[in-house]
Amino acid sequence: MANTLSWLVVLLLTVVGAYGYRIQGKLITNNVIPDLTAVSPSTRVLVNGGRWYTWIHDDGSFQIDNVPEGNWLVEVESKDYVFPKIQLQIQSTASGDQPTILAMPLIPGQEWSSDGKVVKHPLELAAVAKMVFFTPREGFNLLGMLTSPYILMMGFTLVMLFVMPKLQANMDPESAEEWEEEKSRMQKQIGNLQAPDVAASLASWMTGSPGGSTSKPPSKRSSNKNK
């Protein structure tokens, strides 16, 4: 009788090893999903991108059978919410007891390793964010309008119109005279910015030389008449 039971245990373990193990879990509520009725019926739980998959029950629970030993990626496929991805390690024990199932959150960009934070199995998955496909149109933003480059340029111009006369009034006569000469020279150079001598005027303005062309007109040749 004892031998028969031993063979039955061995046979049972062989069948379990051939067909794999069961992954269980459920979705839980939080501030993102206060009620599980908001979860779409099309929501699925995938293992390794759909090699194994199942749909979510009404109470948020799920289970996937016949998953063999190894490292697997468990993720929730939802069109409305974002769920964390789980790295799952299934390892059989030497004594033939229940397998060791190690579950850890998978952080994007992090290497696939067993050094992360361990979560319990059966899994409890809570949504981390709601899917947003459209950006709502912004309303009137007074701060955004005031920080616009055009408004800043207009404000700077108005400030200069009111501030510059006061600065000129406080200047000593010599500085005021130099300022007037510089302003007159700049206005004259701006007035000379006409085709086809735009390049020469710009060069003159940047170098600080007097405006206008510096080339001298050709001198007339004097012809000697034979007497």
UniProtKB/TrEMBL annotation:
Spans through the membrane: 140-163
GO molecular function, one term: carbohydrate binding
Ribosomal protein among keywords: no
Coiled-coil regions listed in the entry: none
Subcellular location, record wording: Membrane
UniProt keyword list: Membrane, Signal, Transmembrane, Transmembrane helix
Region named Disordered: 173-192, 204-227
Secretion signal span: 1-20
Location of the ER membrane protein complex subunit 7 beta-sandwich domain: 39-153
SUPFAM superfamilies: Starch-binding domain-like
Basic residues biased stretches: 218-227
Main location: membrane
Cellular component terms (Gene Ontology): EMC complex
Membrane disposition: Single-pass membrane protein
Family: Belongs to the EMC7 family.
Name of the featured protein: ER membrane protein complex subunit 7 beta-sandwich domain-containing protein
